[in-house]
Design brief:
mainly alpha, Growth Hormone, Chain: A, single chain
């Protein structure tokens, strides 16, 4: 692929460009809301269990992954994403206005998260319809930059906004990003179901067929298992980091935003690098290598002696996560039939968020019983184990299908 072609992927494909912009602005809003809510709960409760409960409320709707993926395989994906984006905007605007107590806050966050979980499989399965097959790695890398903006600029903006104008206005700004996202999606071509003309089956059977397909598909099965185990350990970072930054390292709200955003900047750097050098690494190598780097960054964070060192460590972990995300999505898109992509990505997202849900459920308890540094060391060991397991589970490039079946 020529240098000119690499640089013009977004310019050449207008539909993908608007799709990318929609995901980018939505992800930044997610990052703002996450940091604002974590800081709000940590300040009002002072409890690791309460922070873990908030993050668990965000993760639990991942159980809807198989259902959301089945819907994405049966309806126009663009329309589905627009409705869900607008719904999230309404929920966060209501949260900003009322700023309810802890229980009601968890309920609102869970509703918004459920809508986001419906967007995820529809978005991932739309990429092959917006760019040619040979440009999938580059397109996923660009889409990865959109996701990584959430942790990079979203986290940074969230910390600065809470410090400057408070939680309410941070959430109002988040609500506005969902409106902007829906408007951008209106510029994307229709993304109808790929099952046109196929046998009309019940919704329940559609869900069952997706689960059965993954159980027999070596690549999808390996990606899902590795994601679940890896995220179950890595996501403990999200609970422990606020306590490591503010208690062990003596940082304030802005410092927490900076440390959190470093992970996103690492993810962003990795994705940008892959948009230029996507042919230098296979999807399998990117997926597995990314997990090994994530383990290294997690350990380095736990051992960091100062804020600056934690920033560097989080950046290393972010690079690993960014590379791994691109590798995993490309492996799925190249090996799974179009008509099954929504359901498979629904299960992939479910595995990731179930892993994070488990991490949030036990992460708060671990932080309350152990030091934040010890929690990071335990998490890094688990991520390393998942990485090693993935080496054995994932078929080699020679044995896995290099192209997605039609």
């Amino acid at each position: 692929m020529s240098e000119t072609r690499r640089r013009s992927l977004l310019r050449q494909h207008a539909g993908f460009r608007w799709f990318w912009f929609s995901r980018a602005i939505s992800y930044v809003g997610d990052g703002i809301a996450l940091i604002a809510l974590v800081l709000h709960v940590q300040e009002t409760s002072g409890s690791g269990t309460a922070v873990g409960g908030l993050l668990l409320a965000i993760a639990l709707p991942s159980l809807l992954g198989p259902v959301a993926g089945s819907i994405a395989d049966r309806v126009d994906r663009r329309r589905m994403m627009m409705v869900c984006e607008l719904g999230q905007g309404v929920v966060y605007l209501a949260t900003a206005i009322f700023l309810p107590g802890y229980g009601a806050l968890l309920a609102l966050v869970a509703v918004a998260s459920a809508l986001a979980r419906c967007v995820a499989p529809a978005a991932s399965s739309s990429v092959p319809s917006l760019v040619p097959g040979e440009e999938l790695v580059g397109a996923n890398a660009w889409l990865g930059t959109a996701l990584n903006l959430q942790v990079a600029f979203g986290g940074l903006l969230g910390g600065l906004l809470v410090a400057g104008v408070g939680v309410r206005w941070a959430l109002v700004i988040d609500a506005a990003t969902f409106l902007a996202s829906a408007l951008a999606l209106a510029k994307v071509p229709s993304l109808p179901s790929q099952a046109v003309g196929a046998e009309v089956v019940s919704f329940a059977r559609t869900v069952r067929d997706g689960i059965g397909f993954v159980a027999k598909h070596a690549v999808a099965r390996a990606v899902i298992v590795t994601l679940f185990v890896g995220v179950a350990f890595a996501a403990v970072d999200n609970v422990a980091l606020v306590f490591l930054t503010r208690d062990d390292l003596g940082g304030g709200e802005a410092a927490f935003g900076v440390v959190s955003s470093a992970f996103g900047f690492g993810m962003l750097a990795a994705s940008l690098a892959l948009t230029r050098w996507e042919r230098l690494v296979s999807a399998r190598a990117a997926f597995l290598g990314g997990w090994f780097l994530t383990a290294a960054g997690t350990l380095a964070t736990g051992l960091a002696p100062a804020i600056a060192a934690a920033v560097v460590a989080q950046g290393i972990g972010g690079i690993g996560n960014g590379v791994g995300n691109v590798g995993g999505d490309t492996l799925i898109q190249r090996s799974v039939p179009s008509a099954m992509l929504g359901r498979v990505f629904g299960l992939v997202k479910t595995a990731a968020f179930l892993g994070s849900g488990l991490a949030y459920a036990i992460g708060g308890v671990l932080v309350d019983r152990m030091s934040p540094r010890a929690v990071f060391v335990v998490a890094s060991a688990g991520v390393l184990g998942a990485s090693i397991g993935g080496v054995f589970l994932l078929p080699s490039d020679r044995t896995s299908s290099p192209q997605r079946p039609s």
